[in-house]
Write a structure and sequence with these properties.
By secondary structure, the chain is mainly beta. It has one domain: 6 Propeller (Neuraminidase), CATH 2.120.10.30. Helix content is 1%, strand content 51%. The chain has one helix and 24 strands. Strand 15 and strand 16 form a beta hairpin. The mean pLDDT is 96.
């Protein structure tokens, strides 16, 4: 698997947010515009749709294996095998938009970004383990992929429309971000940075929307590898499998393959023998009656 292979040819409009579920040994992802959530089991080579409803911009896996869904209008819901429980019904400030990429941190908090509204740029929130939500960044063109360095001292975030991936100092004890710096600027005309993940060596993998490639960057921000895909819109990437050397990559444009590429909207697998690490799980407590 030195080159990407299609494992689920589902022609998604915009497949995003792939996450490997270690308890189930399955891959989960969302097709944002259609409001669908899917999971794929490599052991049986089977795929199923497990949710259909409002758009899910991103999700995390809770410690017990259930999911937290981050949706339109700023809504956050708990999903457990089809049972939905509201956590935050909506955010007044986000009624005109939706959550986009999200990530759990080492403590179990969730950093959750948004899309811009017609009148305001995007934002980044932090959902703490007690269920409280804090606005931590404003003025983002489009909040996208996030990740943590192996030493858990720095945090990355892509701002797609600015073509930048930022690096922050991250305080694990408080969840605070500080010292924002530009880490990577993608060349004009080569698409924009979308989802990302960090491997065991601290190298950053960045999916390139409208760039047709997956990129690997050294810890100093130097590009070291680019992998072409038969899809113009490469949206996100995660590591998984029993030993975390399997890479799973989502793409968009399955509704227009004539323009977007023969593999647009499909889910791909790639194994270069590079070690990944499990993503952190969320540990958000909430009152199901609240």
């Amino acid at each position: 698997m030195n080159s990407p292979e299609i494992i689920v040819d589902c022609s998604c409009h915009n497949a995003e947010g792939p996450l490997w579920h270690p308890l189930e040994q399955r891959l989960y992802w969302t097709d944002i515009p259609t409001g669908c959530l899917f999971r794929y089991e490599p052991a049986t080579n089977t795929c199923e749709q497990i949710y259909s409803g409002e758009c899910i911009g991103g999700f995390t896996i809770q410690e017990d294996g259930s999911l937290l869904l981050f949706k339109e209008r700023g809504a956050i819901e708990h999903w457990c095998e089809g049972k939905i429980t509201p956590v935050i019904p909506e955010l007044a400030e986000e009624r005109e938009t939706r959550f986009n990429d999200v990530i759990a941190d080492p403590v179990g908090r969730v950093f959750c970004g948004t899309m811009p509204t017609p009148n305001r740029l995007a934002r980044l929130y932090r959902l703490d383990i007690d269920g409280s939500l804090t606005l931590i960044l404003e003025g983002i063109s489009l909040s996208n992929g996030m990740g943590f360095t192996p030493d858990r001292k720095q945090f990355y975030q892509a701002d797609s429309d600015q073509r930048k991936i930022y690096r922050f100092d991250y305080d694990q004890d408080s969840g605070a971000l500080s010292n924002q710096q530009v880490h990577i600027t993608t060349p004009e005309g080569e698409g924009v940075p979308d989802g990302l993940t960090i491997d065991a060596e601290g190298y950053l993998w960045s999916a390139r929307w409208d760039g047709g490639h997956l990129f690997r960057y050294a810890p100093d921000g130097t590009e070291v590898l680019r992998i072409p895909f038969p899809a113009l819109k490469v949206t996100s990437v995660t590591f998984g499998g029993a030993d975390y050397t399997e890479m799973f990559i989502t793409t968009a444009g399955g509704d227009d393959r004539a323009t977007e590429g023969t593999g647009a909207g499909a889910i791909f697998r790639l194994n270069l023998g590079i070690q990944g690490v499990p993503e952190f799980v969320s540990r958000i407590s909430f009152n199901p009656l609240g």
